[in-house]
Amino acid sequence: MQNINIKSYKDLIVWQKGYELVKQVYKLADKLPKSEIFALQSQMRRSAVSIVSNIAEGGSRKTRKDYCQFLHIAYGSTSELETQLFLCKDLYNIPVEPQLELITEISKILRVIINKLETN
Questions:
Q1: For the whole model, what pTM was predicted?
Q2: Which of 13, 44, 56, 84 could join 9 in a cystine, given CB atoms 3.0 to 4.6 angstroms apart?
C-alpha cells in the first residue's frame, strides 16, 4: 500500500485515532478499583497498545500479506478492547462512550484497509 503522502505509519489516520484511544484508555483504566490492576486494567491497556503497535509493525513489513496479517491482529484487538470497556461500564459504572465511538471508527477504517489490500 504505497502512497506518496504516507511516509510512516504515523501518517495514517487509523494509527492517529488508535494512539488517541490508547491515551484515553490509560486514563480510564486508572478509574478502576485497585483489585483490577493485574486483571482488567492491565488487559485493557495491552489491548489498546496492541491496536497501534500492530498497525505500526504491519506498516513496516515488506509484503502486503504480512501487512494484512498485522492489521487483522489490530482489528481483533479492537473487539477485545470493546468487550473490556463493556465490562467497565457494566461492572463499575464507568462511562466509556467516547472510547467505544473511537473503537467503532478505528474498526471501520481497519476493515476498509484490509478489504482493499486483500482485493488488490
A1: 0.92
A2: 56
12 in helix, strand or coil?
coil
Closest among 103, 114, 113 to 18, alpha carbons compared: 103
Distance CA 46, CA 38 (A): 11
Work out the number of other CB atoms within 10 angstroms of the CB of residue 50: 19
Write the pLDDT tens digit of every residue in 9-21. 999 999 999 999 9
> Using one digit for the tens of pLDDT, what is the confidence trace for 70-115?
999 999 999 999 999 999 999 999 999 999 999 999 999 999 999 9
What one-character-per-residue DSSP string does 40-75 give? HHHHHHHHHHHHHHHHHHHHT-SSHHHHHHHHHHHH
Residue 73 and residue 82 in contact, taking contact as beta carbons nearer than 8 Å:
no
Contact 25, 41 (CB under 8 A): no
Spatial contact of 78 and 53, defined as CB atoms under 8 Å apart: no
Q: Which amino acid is it at 93?
A: N
Q: What are phi and psi of 30, to 5 degrees?
A: -65, -20
